[in-house]
Design a protein that fits this description.
By secondary structure, this protein is mainly β. It has no helices and eight strands. The strands form two sheets. It has a four-stranded antiparallel beta sheet with strand order 1-8-6-3, with no helix packed on it. It has a four-stranded antiparallel beta sheet with strand order 5-4-2-7, with no helix packed on it.
Length: about 80
């Protein structure tokens, strides 16, 4: 089953997607740091929602993203 990697509520209306720490095909474990976004004054890590393999990236560097947006998918 696919589980969405979702940008959590960060207290800022929008964030800028910065980078992926993993690539499609990489194994991840729930809670692993998988991506980073930038909000005014801080870089914030986004964590894997489940154990599995990152199968898709839906956000890329410089994309403007908002809370609740799907950034990628992990296949359990």
């Amino acid at each position: 089953m696919k589980v969405a990697v979702v940008l959590p509520e960060l207290g800022a209306a929008r964030a800028t997607f910065s980078l992926w720490h993993v690539r499609p095909g990489d194994r991840v474990f729930e809670g692993d740091r998988v991506a980073e976004v930038l909000i005014p004054g801080a870089a914030v890590d986004v964590h894997a929602p489940a154990d599995g393999v990152l199968v898709e990236q839906a956000a890329f560097p410089q994309d403007v993203v908002s809370a609740g947006q799907v950034l990628g998918w992990v296949e359990e």
